[in-house]
C-alpha cells in the first residue's frame, strides 16, 4: 500500500470550512486523511504500492502477464495508469489496462484477475486499486470534501491449485443511480469549459443520503450472496474488509448481517474514503496486524458510483 505523506486533519479543514472535528467524527468516523502533494498522483502511488507487493511476494516483474488498475482518477485519459505502472516496473511481458468502477474498482479488478487466472490464460496478475479524489473535490463543499483521501493498494495473484485463493465473486451495477454520485463535466458529455469550471462541475456531486441508503443495503446483501456462492456460512467468515466510506455505513450493515463489528476491518479514522484504494489498503493493514492469516476466510465488499458493487 501507499498513502501520501501529507496528513490533513478535521481541525485543518475546519479552518477554512464551516465544519468541526466533532461533526465529521460523529457522522463518518473520519479524523484524518492523506492528501496527494504536487508530485504525487494515481500512477505514482500505484507504482509505489506495486513495488511493495512485488517485494512481499518475492516476485519478478518480468513474470507478470496482466496488470489491472481499478481507478477513476487516472493521471491521463490515455495512456492508462496501468501502462505507466507496466513501464515503471519493467513488466515487459504484461498486458495492462485501467478499469472504471469508482469505489468498487478494486473488487471489480480482483474478480477480473481471478477469471483471467481461472481461464488458464494468466499465471501472475497484478491488481491495483488507486484514486486521487482530492483532485476531484470542491474544497468549499463541506458535504463531500471532508469524506475523501488519496491512496493505493496492490495485490499479486498467482495461479495455484485450490482450495485457496478467490472462492467466489459477485459483481453488480445499477446505472439508473448514475446521477446520485457523479462528476458532471470533463468527460465527452460536457467539456471542461470555463463555465463548467466556475460551477465546479469537474468535482464530485453527491446525494449523500441516497448513497447512504444504497451502501448499507448492498454491503449487507452482496456479502450474503458471495458467502453463499462460496459454499460457506456467515459463521465461517473470519474477517470482512468493506469499502471505507463511512463508519456508520459499516455499523448499519454489521447489524443487518448480525455480525460483530470486531470482524470488520475499519481504518476510516486515518484515511477517510480512498475510493478504489480503500479495500486493498485495509487488507494490507489487517494482514500486518495479524488479523488475516493463511487459511482465513475473508470477504472484500465494495460499493460506489455507477452505481456499482
Ligand atoms: N460539517 C458540518 N455540517 C455538515 C457537513 C460538514 N462537513 N456536511 C453536511 N453538513 C450539514 C448539512 O448542511 C445539513 O445541514 P442542514 O440540516 O442545516 O441543511 C446537516 O449537516 C445534515 O446533512 P445531511 O446530509 O443530512 O447529513 P447526514 O447525516 O446524511 O451525513 C454524510 C452526511 C456523512 C455525507 C452521509 O450522508 C454519508 O455518509 N453518505 C454516504 C456518502 C458516501 O459514502 N459517499 C461515498 C460513496 S463511495 C464512492 O463511490 C465515491
Helix content: 25-40%
Number of strands: 10
N-to-C terminal Cα separation, in Å? 22 Å
Structural class: alpha/beta
Give the CA-based shape.
Answer: globular
The set of bound ligands, ions and cofactors reads: acetyl coenzyme *A
Mean model confidence by pLDDT: 97
Unreliable sequence segments: none
**Rg over alpha carbons:** 19 Å
Q: Widest sheet: strand order?
A: 4-3-5-6
Task: Provide a descriptive summary of the structure in words.
The protein is of the alpha/beta class and 309 residues long. Helix content is 34%, strand content 15%. The protein has helices at 10-14, 21-28, 42-57, 81-89, 105-118, 194-198, 208-229, 247-257, 268-271, 278-288; strands at residues 7-9, 32-34, 66-70, 95-99, 124-132, 150-158, 181-182, 205-206, 239-242, 298-301. The chain is globular. The chain has ten helices and ten strands. Strand 3, helix 4 (81-89) and strand 4 form a beta-alpha-beta unit. The longest helix has 22 residues, at 208-229. The strands form four sheets. It has a four-stranded mixed sheet with strand order 4-3-5-6, sandwiched between helices. A two-stranded antiparallel sheet has the order 1-2. Helix 3 crosses helix 4 (81-89). Bound molecules: acetyl coenzyme *A. Acetyl coenzyme *A (ACO) binds at residues 19, 23-24, 27-28, 102-103, 142-143, 146-147, 181, 206, 208-209, 211-212, 215, 245-246, 273, 275, 304-305.
Amino acid at each position: 500500500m501507499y498513502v501520501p505523506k501529507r496528513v490533513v486533519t478535521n481541525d485543518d479543514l475546519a479552518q477554512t470550512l464551516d465544519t468541526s472535528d466533532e461533526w465529521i467524527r460523529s457522522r463518518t468516523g473520519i479524523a484524518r486523511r492523506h492528501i496527494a502533494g504536487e508530485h504525487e498522483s494515481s500512477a505514482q502511488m500505484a507504482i509505489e504500492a506495486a513495488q511493495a507487493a512485488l517485494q512481499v511476494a518475492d516476485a519478478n516483474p518480468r513474470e507478470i502477464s496482466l496488470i489491472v488498475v481499478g481507478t477513476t482518477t487516472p493521471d491521463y485519459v490515455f495512456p492508462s495508469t496501468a501502462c505507466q505502472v507496466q513501464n515503471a516496473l519493467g513488466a515487459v511481458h504484461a498486458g495492462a489496462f485501467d478499469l472504471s468502477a469508482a469505489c468498487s474498482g478494486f473488487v471489480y479488478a480482483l474478480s477480473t484477475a481471478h477469471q483471467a487466472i481461472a481461464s488458464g490464460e494468466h499465471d501472475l496478475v497484478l491488481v491495483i486499486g488507486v484514486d486521487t479524489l482530492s483532485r476531484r473535490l470542491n474544497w468549499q463543499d463541506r458535504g463531500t470534501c471532508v469524506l475523501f483521501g488519496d491512496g493505493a493498494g496492490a495485490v499479486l495473484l498467482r495461479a495455484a491449485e485450490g482450495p485457496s485463493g478467490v472462492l467466489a465473486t459477485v459483481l453488480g451495477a445499477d446505472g439508473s443511480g448514475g446521477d446520485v454520485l457523479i462528476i458532471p463535466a470533463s468527460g465527452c458529455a460536457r467539456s471542461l469549459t470555463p463555465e463548467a469550471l466556475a460551477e465546479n462541475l469537474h468535482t464530485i456531486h453527491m446525494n449523500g443520503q441516497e448513497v447512504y441508503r444504497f451502501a448499507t443495503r448492498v454491503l449487507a446483501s452482496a456479502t450474503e450472496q458471495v458467502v453463499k456462492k462460496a459454499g460457506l456460512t456467515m459463521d465461517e467468515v473470519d474477517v470482512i474488509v468493506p469499502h471505507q466510506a463511512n463508519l456508520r455505513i459499516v455499523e448499519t450493515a454489521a447489524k443487518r448481517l448480525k455480525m460483530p463489528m470486531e470482524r470488520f476491518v475499519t481504518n476510516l479514522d486515518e484515511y477517510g474514503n480512498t475510493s478504489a484504494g480503500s479495500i486493498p489498503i485495509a487488507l494490507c493493514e489487517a494482514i500486518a496486524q495479524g488479523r488475516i492469516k493463511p487459511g482465513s476466510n475473508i470477504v472484500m465488499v465494495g460499493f460506489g458510483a455507477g452505481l456499482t458493487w
